[in-house]
Every structure is written in structure tokens, then in C-alpha cells.
Amino acid sequence: MKILSAETFLEQDSHSQAFDQNNRLLDEKVLDIIQQVRQLGDKALFDYTEAFDGVKLSQLKVTAEEFSEAKELVDENFISSIREAKDNIEEFHRMQLEKSWFFHKDSGITLGQMVTPMARVGVYIPGGKAAYPSSVLMNVIPAKLAQVREIAIVTPPQKDGKVNPYVLVAAREVGINTIYKVGGAQAVAALAYGTETVEKVDKIVGPGNAYVARAKKWVFGDVAIDMIAGPSEICVAADDTAPPAYVAADLLSQAEHDERARTFLVTSSQALAENVKTELYRQLDSLERNEIMSKALQDYGNIIITRDEQETFDIVNKIAPEHLEVMMENASDKLPLIKNAGAIFLGRFSPEPLGDYFAGPNHTLPTSGTATFSSPLGVYDFIKKSSIIQYSKEALQEASDSIISLAKTEGLTAHANAIYQRRDEKNA
């Protein structure tokens, strides 16, 4: 974990660590996988699952028997916890619901906006070595609230050819019956273009590895996607009131995701910086994924010393972190200083895992500095908006001269003609 001055940090490209600048070879592989899936359909999915996951499948779709078996394999505490989290997530995302609206002007003019849900959505859930039932809740619940008609999950199988039982139970708790045992770029391609078994979707959401992220990039335009996610990241903005043990624990909570996870502590307190660094390595020894965390801290960990609070938040806004914790006295008073962050956690008792699992806001968040222009996943990601325009004969007559003038200015005489045809009494 490096300790840097704010000036030194700003001299660096603060996002360069988040991106692999040489994606050429990865893209060649991903594009070949996409092409094979488009050409060979299910056969490609079976072949890639055997090659990449070491599993020879007899069918792609999870059966009713597998769903039933999964419920017997999980404990009641998990089911109780998942239901409590589900309630919180639904409560938060219900506030995001949008309605169609219309307004009426004089002379027979009606304008408005009609909100309609997408018809079919695909959700990618990482799998294989790890299980992410929380991602099932975070991606499916907003789509359900938006009233998406069909939602399908894709996820890599375990070595036994089955989907992790916790993922299956979480899926059933949110009303999902369609799950395909396929992961990687091939799963993204199947959702984007369809196969004999997998039906084409309108949008693909959910986190994944580098292959999944690049595949989403390449199918975008043929389908919609939520975002192109990079490695996870956390930034803690702290003053000398922050307990070093809390700060260190929260930095480690994200460092365990990936060797490329990015961790930042931004503070004007040199003493806090030194104490957190010591605490990081003390806690590290007792944690299971310490090799991953050590690598992440070594390569992508930064403690940045600032002159004052204003510079602290200037740095925070430059980073535009996925997760931002404000561990300062009167933390909520600092909100006006924050311009760029995916999710903001205020105070010492609002650790990042609270948002990952339980509080209610979505944990699918913009990474790699994209919080400067992107938002967390929400209900709004699963709806479309159509403009509504209705003019009466009289209202169109009144506006006709202006429309014709603008059309002629742009040299679009057929546009003007569409108005002339209606203004001509013979055609009225």
C-alpha cells in the first residue's frame, strides 16, 4: 500500500490502473467466441462449457428438480437473510418507479411521455468457484419492479454440472424460473443473438470477468447493456476521528474481490495514514483470501495525504470511485462536496458490505471513474420512454409557417411538403 502526496497522485493517471490498455488479444478471443455462438448456437455453448469450465453438460437449462434440490441444500438462516435483504432492496427501488405523463395545451395540443418496460432481459451472475446470490437480488428486483415480462439468468456451472444452490434459491425467491448453465463471453453472445435454447434478450445486465465485460462491449448496439464494469474499487475519505481498524477492514473488504481491485484512503491526517497501513497488514494475516488482498494492495492500493478537507474531496471526485465511504465527523455535511461516486456510505457505521448485501440501494455500480457520467443500476435501466405528440387541425395550421420555415432552412423540402399537404384545404 503506497502512501502518496496529493500532488504525486494527481501527476499520475488516476485511472490507468483500472484499464488493461492492451485488449487486442482478449478482444480477438472474445470476438471469435461470439462468432462461433452465432454460427453454431447451442453446440458452441456446450463445447465452450466443457473447454472453459471442465463440465460436459447434457442440457443447458436448470430443471425444476434442480431448483427443488437446491432448497434442501441451503439453511434456513440463508433463506431468512435473503428475504430480509429482498424486502429492503424492493423498498428502495420502488421509489424509482416512473409513470407515463401527459399535458394538454391550448388549441388541441397533447404532449407527453409514455413509459413501457423492456420485454426480455438477461442477467449475468458470476459462478463457478464463487456464488453471488446477492447479485441475483440486485439485478432481478429492479427489472421485476419495472414489469419486465421475461427475465433469464446465465451463470457458469460448478464442477458437478449444477448451479450453486444459493444462487438457485435466491433466483426462486425473486420469481426466476429460467436459468442457463453457461458463463463467459459465450453466455453474453447467446443472450445477445439467441440460440436453439437461449432466447434473445433486449438488454444484458450483471457483473462478470474481463471476457464478460469485453463481450458486453462488442454486443452493445445489437442489445442494450447496463455498463462495462472494471475491477471493484473503494475509496475512504477520512479524518483523524476515523478508527484505523474500521478503515482497514473496509479497504480489505473490496481488496478480496480481485488482484486488480483498487483501494484508496484519502486523508489529511498523516497519523491516520500510518495507523491504517499498519492495521491493514495486521488484519490481513487472519483473513482467508489474503494472497489476493496482498496483491491488490501492493499493485493498486493508495493512501493519499491531502492538505485539507477541500483537497480531500477534490481527489475523491477525481477518482470517482465505485464505493465511497466518508468516515469523518459530521459525515452527512460533506455531501455537497461530493460530485462523483457510485454509492456513498456516510459515517463509521455504514461499511461498504452493508450496501453489497442488505441496505437496499443497488450494488451494481459504475467503476473505473465512470461515476462521472454513470449511475447505479436501477428500475430506470429496464424501461423505455416514448414521446407522445398529438395536434389538432387548428393547432397544426397555427404552427405550419414556423415548421415550413425551419424545414426549408435545412433543405428538407419533403418535410415542408408534409405540412403543405395538410394546410391545403383540398387535402384537409
UniProtKB/TrEMBL annotation:
**SUPFAM superfamilies (alphabetical):** ALDH-like
Keyword annotations for this protein? Amino-acid biosynthesis, Histidine biosynthesis, Metal-binding, NAD, Oxidoreductase, Zinc
Q: Which organism is it from?
A: Oceanobacillus kapialis
Protein's name in the database: Histidinol dehydrogenase
List ligand-binding residues for Zn(2+). 254, 257, 356, 415
Report which superkingdom the organism of origin falls in.
Answer: Bacteria
As for family, the record states: Belongs to the histidinol dehydrogenase family.
Q: Where does NAD(+) bind?
A: 124, 186, 209
Pfam name, any one: Histidinol_dh
The catalysed reaction is: L-histidinol + 2 NAD(+) + H2O = L-histidine + 2 NADH + 3 H(+)
Q: Does the keyword Translocase apply?
A: no
- UniProt binding sites for substrate: 232, 254, 257, 323, 356, 410, 415
As cofactor, the record names: Zn(2+)
